[in-house]
Amino acid sequence: MVLSAADKANVKAVWEKAGGNVGKYGGEALDRTFLSFPTTKTYFPHMDLTPGSADIMAHGKKVADALTLAVGHMDDLPGALSKLSDLHAYKLRVDPVNFKLLSHCLLVTLACHLGGDFTPAAHASLDKFLSSVSTVLTSKYR
Amino acid sequence: MVHFTAEEKAAVTSLWAKVNVEEVGGEALGRLLVVYPWTQRFFDTFGNLSSASAIMGNPKVKAHGKKVLTSFGDAVKNMDNLKPAFAKLSELHCDKLHVDPENFRLLGNVLIIILATHFGKEFTPETQAAWQKLVVGVATALSHKYH
């Protein structure tokens, strides 16, 4: 799967619209993931998983910042995300199925906040982007 | 069998009451075809699906989307017995339409995203969780008669 020029433009445009809220959206996406897909909580026994907790908000911001980095380097995701890829492969070892769950909840969060601006084309591009990021993050698993 | 709490049922039915089935149905099917273009394989007779705007404006897509979502309304009315409610449709999707059940999961998640665009903050994490259960239940029910 390749991100076209149009995809990259769509992703950048959505990220710009989200603006300073991306950190908050990261937290909300995690809240949604833990509520809709409780098995994902198994990776966070060390965190307070009460919805909206400081732990979740902090972690959401971390995730959002990494995605912001990815948005800025869509021409070389493997390069830009190499350290995170190592982390997920050798330390965190989050089962690949979970990336789809978080990606879906990120899309839901963006959809909630952007409404009509989250057009079908933008949705498609974001889905492709998150899928590409997920692929990179699991690329060194075996 | 999926079990819904009273709160989950309330979250689903109260939101459903506000859904314009014709509009949302068309959008849901349209987005499925845009975001996952391989799903177009079932719709060779639908005419112009060459771009996002062509798909979203296609009258056959809108009509079929309405049909599909109207059927979803049956799920909302039968949350405690999805499998029997969808038995005949399950046979149809297997024996006549030959649809891979993975497509039901894709459509379910697209529907949830559309509800999110329409309802914004009202589509809380709790509401989403109830709807996720419902779409999984529908997908499972529709796959139940596959052989």
TrEMBL record, chain A:
Keywords, comma-separated and alphabetical: Heme, Iron, Metal-binding, Oxygen transport, Transport
Pfam families for this protein: Globin
Keyword Signal carried by entry: no
Ranges of residues in domain Globin: 2-142
Membrane-spanning residues: none
PROSITE patterns assigned to the protein according to its UniProt record, in alphabetical order: GLOBIN
Family: Belongs to the globin family.
The protein's role, per its UniProt record: Involved in oxygen transport from the lung to the various peripheral tissues.
Name assigned to this protein: Hemoglobin subunit alpha
Organism listed in the record: Echinops telfairi
TrEMBL record, chain B:
Residue intervals of the Globin domain: 3-147
Pfam family, any one: Globin
CDD domains: Hb-beta-like
Entries under Gene3D superfamilies matching the protein: Globins
Tree of life domain: Eukaryota
Keywords linked to the UniProt accession: Heme, Iron, Metal-binding, Oxygen transport, Transport
Family (UniProt): Belongs to the globin family.
Protein name per UniProt: Hemoglobin subunit epsilon
Organism: Echinops telfairi
